[in-house]
Amino acid sequence: MSWFLWFVTPWSSSSFPLLLLTVLSRQIGLEGVQASVCSRWETHTNMGLFQGGDVIIGGLFNLYFMSSLTEQDFNKKPYYDSCISFRPYTLRYIHAMVFAVEEINRNNSLLQGVKLGYRILNSCGLYPWALQATIPLLIGIASTSTAVVVSEVLAPLSVPIISYRASCPCLSNRHKFPSFFRTMQNSMYLTQAMAQLAIRFKWAWVGVVITNNDYGHSALQTFQKETQGKGVCIDFVQIVNKHAIMNDAKKAAITIEASTARVILIFCWHTDVRQILLALAERNVTDRQFLASGAWSTSNELMQDLAISKLSSGVVGVAIRSSTIPGFENYLRSLNPYNHPDNVFIRELWEREFGGTESLEKMQDVFTDMSQLRETYNVYLAVYAAAHALHSLLSCPNRDSPTNNSSTCSSAKHIKPRELLQHLNKVNISTPHGEMFYFQGADIPPRFDIINWQKTPDGSLKFVVVGQVNEFGIHLNESVIQWNTGSSEVPVSVCSKSCPPGTRKANRKGEPVCCFDCIPCGEGEISNITGSLHCERCPSEFWSNTERTVCIRRQTDFLSFNETLGITLTTVAVSGVIVTTAVFVVFLYYRQTPMVRANNSELSFLLLLSLKLCFLCSLVFIGRPSVWSCRFQQAAFGISFVLCVSCLLVKTMVVLAAFRSARPGAAALMKWFGPGLQRGSVCLFTSVQIIICIIWLSLSPPVPHRDLGIQGSKVTLKCTMASVVGFSLVLGYIGLLACTCLLLAFLARKLPDNFNEAKLITFSMLIFCAVWVAFVPAYVSSPGKYVVAVEIFAILASSYGLLFCIFAPKCFIILLRPEKNTKKHLMGR
């Protein structure tokens, strides 16, 4: 029989195996200490199960534990209470190991010819008891001197250790723990799964309660790392200490109540969680959704506690995955102290549960409950991992070959721990019911169950598996989850509500990124998703709608005959045409009267015709711009006004010539400047503008243009000046004639006639020049279609100014003061 240096350890505290080796290596084993401490240890640590075999697997379990922990103040000799409290579910772990060993021994394809044995002892869950149990498990000796030797040689011997409950990420360090393995999941993977749940359910604002040890702090660090930059923020972190749990639980309850976070993550042991939930129940805080770590997500004690059932309903947690062990239930129910008289643990269970000759066949308790085989299955896996490593080590290729050198093959009587450690690192097996299993360093691939605490019709709670986690991600059936609210709607836990479409996030200074304000997008910008960080600018041909959620195509906008402004300007222009026509008719009817014949009636009729053209040309600017309308409107405007101003200029020149001819020797001047020359002058002045327009429109004419630079939901369609020089020459020539006319009229304003037309021309030119001087800045600064409206207004205003200033006084005399329409009166001084 070969003793194989092996542990199947149950330590849920990650530091336990490490501290076990540390305590040994520190050589704390003086004889006096042994006398004072070991004499206090209960005989429960000496109780165990043993079965002989070629290779013995050692198992260390916390079957008994202290009901309370005695604090050592080192003012007197250390003292520990009795380790007598019994854990029936741990007994199930023990028999999972026994069942696995017996199953392997019956397997003809695994470890053929090699019988496994076991030695199982109780550790009481504390280091002194674990040391006392471990030393005889390894060597069979309990002396202090042997403990000192073991502490010096254990690490170099590379003794493999497999734990079924140790979960601390620190144990994955192969440099510090080269011989450590576990079938328990690394708690880092579990915390990562919890982080993924928070991200998946969009819980942006959570509170965290942790226990004040390596487990709690490492879980917090992992959670923060996994959620960083993924929309999850922590509102608070509350730390609780086991030795002051009553006070710390109350503090945690106050913090949770004051927090706006509706989802609370708790990384604590189930005993601490119970105190926290009780404190919350006292404060009637029942509207929080709890996300449970593996340390309490499958705690029957918590789930069955009626005092906290209202709070614990709906708990979602990540737990060690549950699996089945075929045949294990029948095996457990067949156990009894009569068929297994050497099984001290079964005898203990019978004494505590029955005290008689009862049977386990129909009994329902934590020992026979097969619905939650989590740690139990880890024990089962650990034994199979050990068996397969042994099988690999003891399997010698071509063992029966005549040329085989048996010295290179291991035997069950000569197992070297280092060789076994190498094979354990390579374990890659399939369990009896088909699950693939292998080690990744110290760890196994992450596999978890997502648990939901749901209410049953009778009001009690039950565990429901709603999803799984593996190395490929989370697989979750959200529709079957029952939340704390009692509904299937995912709870909302945010610092700030998500910004709706049409707005963007704006972080609050000095606060977490999950706390923000929602700022509406500006004009021409949109955000079409919830929680947008930025507003996007619409393409040039589009504009944002009122809600700032979509870009809509801009409407084509131009000065139309159908809109109010267009109708108004059209009405004013047509009215000007009508009034001009009426004046023309009056002048035509009274063409033989002195008032009409004065200053060349032919020029007056030509002036009225040009004014009518000015009014009419304004209508060309209204309506949808086209290639020909853009060309015609500017030419019509420029030529009409030049014709109009030319008539006034020639009229002014006639007035000056008439009075100059009255001087001695100047009679020939008026004769020379007769009607023919007057008409020729008008034609000459107008021809210059016609030539400018022809050259301009031939080289670089105005063209229709979609103006996208105007901010708004519309695209302005207007005539753009391809050549500013051409337009400037047209306006400049009109201005030159107008200024010349104004100057001459101003010089002739005081000539001695009762009716001096030079005065009328002076006033008309002042109005004309004022309108067009004001036009330039207004034209440049006006947006969109209002540019066209400004030009039309300038045309109409100057046209009306000329019409009324020149012809209103004459029409007044002709129609209302006919007695003054005489040559004598007009020539009077």
Question: Which terms summarize this structure?
Answer:
single chain; about 850 residues; alpha/beta; Rossmann fold; 4 domains
Explain how this protein is built.
There is one protein chain. With 829 residues, the chain is of the alpha/beta class. It folds into 4 domains: 253 residues, Response regulator (Rossmann fold), CATH 3.40.50.2300; 171 residues, 3-Layer(aba) Sandwich (Rossmann fold), CATH 3.40.50.2300; 51 residues, no CATH class; 239 residues, Rhopdopsin 7-helix transmembrane proteins (Up-down Bundle), CATH 1.20.1070. The chain is built from 25 helices and 27 strands. The strands form 8 sheets. Strands 10-9-11-12-13-16-17-18 form an 8-stranded mixed sheet, with helices on both faces. A 6-stranded mixed sheet has the order 2-6-3-1-7-8, with helices on both faces. A hairpin with an 8-residue loop joins strand 19 and strand 20. Helix 6 crosses helix 7, helix 19 packs antiparallel against helix 21 and helix 21 packs antiparallel against helix 22.
